């Protein structure tokens, strides 16, 4: 087991956790939808509250624990307060499905609600990310350097809130990937042909492969987990998109029909979370 916590397996371990948040998030959504009926929105609100509580607990933890709590908290918040909010308001306002169907794909009403949030996400991204000159995020600082916005190194002793950072990463990367592919499909069905979607898919998959490579370079569990969250969600786009166009069935959306597949996914995810928890160290530590 110790080999799991060493390079390059360590980064791939974090990648697998980030990757599995996506299909299992869809599975949780469908299970709630199919079993709770009229109570599903109340359950969704409560799930989001649990997510915020987990992030709140993580605020006082060391780096690895905080990352772990932030991951789960952000995941619950996305499912409960984002996914189900889009569905609730799509029903409330009778939003129609995407009017153009291509090769069996049609965007659901809640996806159209999500697509309408593009300027909201962009505005928050600019204010919280691009204009945050104290950020230690490598992605943000890449733009800071190249846009001549970099203020140099962040302020020393500016303690990072890893639970909040991880939760925001889960939410923002998931949100971004959703919007990116919804708009790629939208423009790809507006008379220009699916070559836009296919070309975008190839470029996206190259990016995902690069992120997987970067994951193999990670040497600390907490940072590997945070990097794996973003990389795994991006990689999920490469895995999921072919299913939208009929390459294979989205097994994660039919847990009752594919219990073995979904049980195995859940078992791997839970076992991975437990494996991270086993590396927890006293609060004075940082990473284990």
In short:
With 288 residues, the chain is mostly helical. The protein contains ten helices and no strands.
Amino- and carboxy-terminal Cα gap: 15 Å
Order of helices and strands: HHHHHHHHHH
Radius of gyration: 19 Å
Give helix % range. Answer: 55-70%
Q: Give the class from helix and strand content and strand pairing.
A: mainly alpha
Helix segment count?
Answer: 10
* Biggest sheet descriptor: none
* Secondary structure tally: strands: 0
- For the record, the count of structural domains works out to 1
β content, as a range? Answer: under 5%
Taking all residues together, what is the mean pLDDT?
87
Overall outline: globular
The parts where pLDDT drops under 50 for at least 5 residues are none
Summarize the structure in words.
This protein is mostly helical and 288 residues long. The chain has one domain (19-148, 162-277). The chain has ten helices and no strands. α4 crosses α7 (162-188).
What distinguishing features does this structure have?
288 residues, 10 helices, 0% strand, mainly alpha, 68% helix
Topology:
Layout: H1 9-36, H2 40-58, H3 63-92, H4 109-115, H5 118-130, H6 138-146, H7 162-188, H8 195-215, H9 221-244, H10 259-277
């Amino acid at each position: 087991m110790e080999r799991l916590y060493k390079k390059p397996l360590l980064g791939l371990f974090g990648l697998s956790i980030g990757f599995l948040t996506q299909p299992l998030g869809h599975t949780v959504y469908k299970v709630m939808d199919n079993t709770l009926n009229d109570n599903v929105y109340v359950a969704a609100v409560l799930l989001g509250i649990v997510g915020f509580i987990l992030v709140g607990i993580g605020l006082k933890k060391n780096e690895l624990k905080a990352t772990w709590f932030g991951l789960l908290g952000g995941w619950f918040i996305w499912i409960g307060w984002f996914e189900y909010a889009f569905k609730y308001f799509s029903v409330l306002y009778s939003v129609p499905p995407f009017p153009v169907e291509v090769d069996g794909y049609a965007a659901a009403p809640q996806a159209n609600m999500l697509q309408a949030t593009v300027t909201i996400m962009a505005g928050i991204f600019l204010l919280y990310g691009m204009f945050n000159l104290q950020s230690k995020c490598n992605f943000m600082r890449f733009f800071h350097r190249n846009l001549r916005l970099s203020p140099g190194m962040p302020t020393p002793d500016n303690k990072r809130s890893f639970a909040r950072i991880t939760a925001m990463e889960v939410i923002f990367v998931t949100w971004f990937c959703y919007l990116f592919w919804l708009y790629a499909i939208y423009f790809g069905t507006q008379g220009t042909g699916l070559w836009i979607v296919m070309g975008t898919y190839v470029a996206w998959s190259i990016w995902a492969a690069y992120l997987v490579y970067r994951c193999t370079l990670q040497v600390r569990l907490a940072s590997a987990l945070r990097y794996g969250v973003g990389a795994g969600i991006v990689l999920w786009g490469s895995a999921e998109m072919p299913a939208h166009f009929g390459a294979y069935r989205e097994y994660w959306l039919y847990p009752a029909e594919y219990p073995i597949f979904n049980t195995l996914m859940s078992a791997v995810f839970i076992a991975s979370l437990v494996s991270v928890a086993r590396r927890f160290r006293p609060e004075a530590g940082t990473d284990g």
